[in-house]
## 1
Amino acid sequence: MVPSAGARRALPVAVAAVTTTMLVAAPSESWQAGAACQGRGRLFDREDAAGMAAAQAVCGWCPVRTECLASALTEEGDAAEAERAGVRGGLTPAERAAPARVAAAGRGLDPAVVTRAEQLLREGASVRAVAAACQVTLERARELRGAFGVPPLAPVYPPGPVYPTVAAAFTANVRAVGGGHVVWTGGGHVRVAGARYRRNRAAFEAQHGRPADGRVLTTCAYPGCVAHLSDNQTRGARRA
Ligand code: SF4
Ligand SMILES: [Zn+2]
């Protein structure tokens, strides 16, 4: 995305000038005369991942990178990522906004707690474990995870077979008990083609040929029966 006019104004003179197609303004600070991005305005205008990576490569050999980054961080202050434009000093807007995000997420906490949370999160701890170890709320632990740019953990599925379809999962996990009732003999969840289903949802979908809409409830008196189930749609149809 091309930076807005406001965002362009936030760029250092050496960069702002070249991002408007060519260097038209004299550098206002001495370090800017050595900027490696001079004449590379189109590249530094890009905000896609590949474009920013290429711009960062230029910054990698820029002789004034330290000065450029210091200038950018001073100028941008605690602005949000969206208010920062382009690669500056070798960092993307997200990377430059990270310290401000961490400061916001760690507000009121002892810095040692924030450091501990970062360490645990980077080691792969869950937000629940971080919340317990650092004595913060789950919400705060999630906020810290986002601020440190640590992705959520992939869901951990219980061991067991992976069925190709919900119908196959249903057939393999039920037993008829008479009177038209059927009980589930497997665990609380089943894995179907990599997704995890609660047993009632799998049973409903297998019998109705569509995913359940909303809560799935048993409609008969037989304990644990998964042959007689309702969802929002079937309950609505019954009421109509
Ligand atoms: S560090 Fe990057 S953005 Fe800053 S002056 Fe050098 S090349 Fe340009
Ligand atoms: Zn039943």
Note: Residues 106-147 form one domain.
## 2
Amino acid sequence: MTPAPRWIQRVSPSGLSKRITECHSTGSSHYNTSVETAPNTRAFYIGILYPSSMEDPPDHKSAVRREFTKQASDYAESDILTDPEKIDSLIQATGPSSGARVLEIATGPGHVALGFAEECDQVTGIDITEAQLEIAREKSKERGVDNVHFEKGDAEDLPHQDDSFDIVVCRLAFHHFEDPAVVVEEMSRVCRPDGTIAVDDIIASELPPRASYQNEFERLRDPSHVRALPLSEIIALFSQSKIEVTDVFSSTNVQEVEQWLSLAKTPESRADEVRRLIEEDARDDRSGTRPFWQDDTLYFAQNTAIVVGRRLRDSRLGDRQVTDHPRSG
Ligand SMILES: C[S@@+](CC[C@H](N)C(=O)[O-])C[C@H]1O[C@@H](n2cnc3c(N)ncnc32)[C@H](O)[C@@H]1O
């Protein structure tokens, strides 16, 4: 006797309702269907139909564009992005020379790229959000800077030749990348051998449950946040991409919770949950971001790190077996 077909639901009930909500908000329609896969097995697919006028499917990168278009002008002027000391710390960490060709990945409104343009020969800033690039171009025009240019491009697939920059940097964007390993590989590819690579970003706890607590409230506040990485993971990604870590500088971004929520224009229903999670963190020390109250105002501290490395030439990678770990005892 032939057994009854088994149904496999490929989209979890919560994933399903989320997708349908998103699809209503973008005005697209949805469908579902079933197909035969193997004997006695059927798969249940949820698909979404997009009007041909839509530029992007509702994938992660379109969430990034949506969030950074929505936040564009307020965000460009935010204290943390414009802080000249923070910009200078990153620039000085790379030891720039006046003749350097610099690439800034995910440049946003271009503050870091414009800072480099004061010290270096040629600077390129790339980003996937056009609204951010427009602000960056406007700023460089206002300041009469002519050695920087801004172009559209994806950090996971850089539109540049191998070995074409002396310095490649990325600030406050790694937590938005779906595949940070690919981005580090791309940064390494476009950097010349012996050139400098620096990643400056929020870092999460080395302890996974604490890291995921922070990432959960960060994602609720801004759905384009994927995951702040622990420092050890950024260092490991450098090593996997022929980059030798030369320096690590740590710091914090102290955030006033209400200001930080209003910058991202987080809808009230999600903002309430973010407040609840951070208040619980203040009481029970859940994430390592050390939330605290001052004059009835709630704050927390994002830990950050600038990881700097040198892109090694292949001949420096060596082929020696590892023999320098003598057995103890
Ligand atoms: C928080 S902003 C940081 C802006 C800038 N790096 C700074 O520190 O002033 C993050 C930026 O990353 C950009 N971004 C995110 N994913 C990207 C990708 N895959 N390729 C290029 N840009 C990306 C967003 O569009 C946004 O402008």
Note: The CA atoms of residues 205 and 288 lie 6 Å apart.
